[in-house]
Amino acid sequence: MTDGFDGRKRETLRRFAAIGAAAPFVGTASADAGSDGADANETREAIRGYVPTTPGAHFSKLRDDLRLGTGEAQYHLRKLEEAGEIESAKDADYRRYFPADRFDDLDKRALGYLRRDTPRGMILALLRDPGATGAELAADLGVSRPTISAAAAALDDAGLLDRSDGYALTEPERLLTLAVRYADSFDADAVAFADDAAELVAYDP
């Protein structure tokens, strides 16, 4: 590992560790330092800061965003789960991570789909225009109709979309709130959406 990468990793960890140090679930920090050393404590604090600000991130995203090794990330995530500070849920081929006891199952499914490009684009488009058709969604997102159909079926199975008469979001207030609250952790389109929609938020999970 190069000195440059080590420096970027340390900077990343410190940035999220600062968030983690202010989080409500940092009671095991001193124990971390005593049992695993200062570096392990900093890594765990970074995860404590990252997970609440990026809920629903899957393992690979968390590992890459924090510049951790695979084994390193697995070890610290397991320790935090065992301590009851974070929790994870299997989502198809992904394992997604959440702060413990903050989200119900539907929130977790919603966040999982908001972290997928096409479903997130569909959700944001339908929040803007509830009457949008499949063809309009495909054109807006620059994807094929079959791609939209497949994403719609998955959202339907998750209880987030009703396809009985066009496409209708079943939990628009919940999706709106999650999209706005965590917009910075999605993409620029979500941030732009949040800038326009923040005043409409009423749901508070």
UniProtKB/TrEMBL annotation:
Transmembrane segments: none
Signal sequence segment: none
Domain of life where this protein originates: Archaea
Matching InterPro entries: HTH_HVO_0163_N (IPR056504), HTH_MarR-typ (IPR000835), WH-like_DNA-bd_sf (IPR036388), WH_DNA-bd_sf (IPR036390)
Residues in HVO-0163 N-terminal HTH domain copies: 41-111
SUPFAM superfamilies: Winged helix' DNA-binding domain
GO terms for biological process, alphabetical: regulation of DNA-templated transcription
Pfam family, one: HTH_HVO_0163_N
Ranges where the HTH marR-type domain occurs: 123-164
PANTHER family: HTH ARSR-TYPE DOMAIN-CONTAINING PROTEIN (PTHR36216:SF1), TRANSCRIPTIONAL REGULATOR, TRMB (PTHR36216)
Name of the protein: Winged helix-turn-helix transcriptional regulator
